[in-house]
Write the structure tokens for this entry.
Amino acid sequence: MNNIWCFLLLRRVLHYISFLAQLSTCAVHFCKMLHLMLVVLVPILATAQPYRNVSLGSSLTSDNSNSAWLSPSGDFAFGFRQMVPSGGYLLAIWFDKIPEKTIIWSANRDNPAAKGSKIQIFPDGRFELDDPTGQQIWSAALARSGVAYGAMLDTGNFVLVGNASAVLWQSFDYPTDTILPSQIFNQGSSLVSSFSDTNYSSGKFMFSMQSNGNLGSYNRNFLMDDNIGPYWVSNTVGSGFHVIFNQSGYIFLTAENGTILNFLSSNGASTSQYYQRAILDYDGVLRHSVYPKFGNKTGGRPMNWSVSDFLPENICLSMPVYSGWGACGFNSICSLLGIDQRPSCFCPTGYSLIDPSDKMSGCKPDFTAQSCDQESEDKSLFTFVDMPNTNFYGFDYITYQQVREDWCRQSCLDDCFCAAASYDRNTCWKKKYPLSNGRLDSGIGGKALIKVRKGNATLAPPSNNNSKKSDRSTLIITGSVLFGSSVLVNVILLIALLSFGFHLKRRESMILHPDSALPDVANVRSFTFKELQEATNGFKEELGSGACSTVYKGTLEDRNGPLIAVKKLNKIAIEAEQEFKAEVNSISRTNHKNLVQLLGYCDEGENRLLVYQYMSNGSIASFLFQNSRPNWYQRVQIAFGTARGLCYLHEECSTQIIHCDVKPQNVLLDGSLVAKISDFGLAKLLRDDQTRTMTGIRGTRGYVAPEWFRNMPITVKVDVYSFGILLLELICCRRNVEKGVAEEILSDWAYDCYKDGTLHLLVANDEETMKDIKRFKKFVMVAIWCIQEDPSLRPNMKRVLHMLEGSIEVPLPPDPESFID
């Protein structure tokens, strides 16, 4: 019996010991969990953002391991990026989930680290980048000590947090060239552009929030780390407080009380759907760009950065005249002829880039300049390259008024200091080297006369000075012989000689100053047929064709030059001639980011061709009505861009233009999916005192306004009607009239759905659009206003744009067919 009791007692003791052990284990687990919760919650409470803790003593080394500290979602990474071709390493933050790994912040942009350099949070709280020998390259400017850990946040902000859960340092306070959503740009903050698209070191431009409340973009004297002067300002001295980039994708300047003073970007986008950034690019333009997070799920388009908004609108014209190098460098010319609203920098004929890898490096003459030491140097060795609507600003050394152009030319030829002259309305300005702040734009007027040696200028005659002297000698000898003959023969031959001499002189003049078939076209280049034949490789690659023309893909200058689209008009005597003149004259008067830029033309014999910037993504028709259609956000931006382009043609262009053929095929998309209106062949120009015109039916079936068929005056409202149809097609991804289908027309169906409250039927298979059904409804209402049969009921394009952007309310539209003829 005693043995049994002993056994039971022993078993109870063992159970008790086991219970204590389990309790101890639970307590340990509980303490660990409590500790873990505290570690997680403290930084969340401190920063209101999820994080990944980077503990004291943690480090990263610049090598090929690609190690980095990631944000919780993995959207951003902090670590080293190797620069190509220099090979150095930047300590940077970048978008990690996109293939481009776009850098948005760097610590050592002007001092790349060598391989083996290390960034470390030291146990004493220092955050320091050292080279392989231990020498400091960069360190965080900490106001006080006590760093407990670091964290890479999902906002793109890297923070150092103290023991009291306070943020002691953050990368958002020290931006380089980029700001992100949720980032606040305070007084004293600045962005500095990179030097080029491949060189991340500090460049020539600065975007700064001044302590006096003024926000501006400045030319930066980067060798002295100060600024020369502004080329864009907010004019908010005394009221500007800080710039906010909010989670809805809007960027605006506010006063201290929160009042919005100025929108820097009014094209919002959801941060849940798009990565976003605002970057001061190396060309001095501040661009708001977006990148779809789920590109393949929201329309099947390849993922890339697309420009949502930018300022200034035209940096070439915004640059102040006292800025020596301008937007493109000395002796260079700036024009918005490139894609994506990026300034195109190019050298005049006879000049070439100082650094072929940097288009903003400026240009150097490829000839020996006229010497003041060699008085015997023949002035006839020099000629002029004429550049209409071009000027170099800021450093004219002498001005003559009430003079003729030929006098201006001769005065510059006789002056060894004169490198170029500009002439406009009986005034001549002479300029020295280096030529500064060059710009080309249709609004400039006049022309630049750039002096070059004839042997090096493509516009110069092929003959040289010796051949001219030879021609003169031949004439003298021939004259001497004549005087030795009979009087009658001498008279006849003298007349023939004078006629020949006059013809020779006229031919020389024509070569130096060729007559243009289109004298009013001042801001486009004249090409020879042979040049365009070579540029298109014998018109080999066809991009598309129409009733009167075929478009070919080409490349300017050489195979590495910019891509172009060459429109070759068919040899239809009257129709082609009229289309050619209408298109050249209308486009040459325009300059807007949402219009396709005309680069040049050819008017040689029966050959008439137009040269445009190449649109890599084709027309929106090819997107809308195929499988790889744009996502909802992209379609919204295309609608905005098209509306802005038409608004410019109707109300902002120097000569009002009615396009007359607005349709998806005539709205093209560049590499960033920016909409650009094209094909002005059917445009109707209006005089300043004219508001309407009578003309035959133009346009394309399905987009033509009713007044074309009613013998009514044609106004800009015909374009508004066509835009309304295009807008419906754009937001619904359906054709207004399907070929060979006798079903309901889209515009009729859209109104019925709007009236019946069943708009979701129009986009039943488009989940992204369904999530933004309120905006979709607003766009449908705007389209219904645009397609009113009564032209007087249609809003003008400026009002259409304001309704689309939401700056004014959209009233309830009437039935489009309520108009009684």
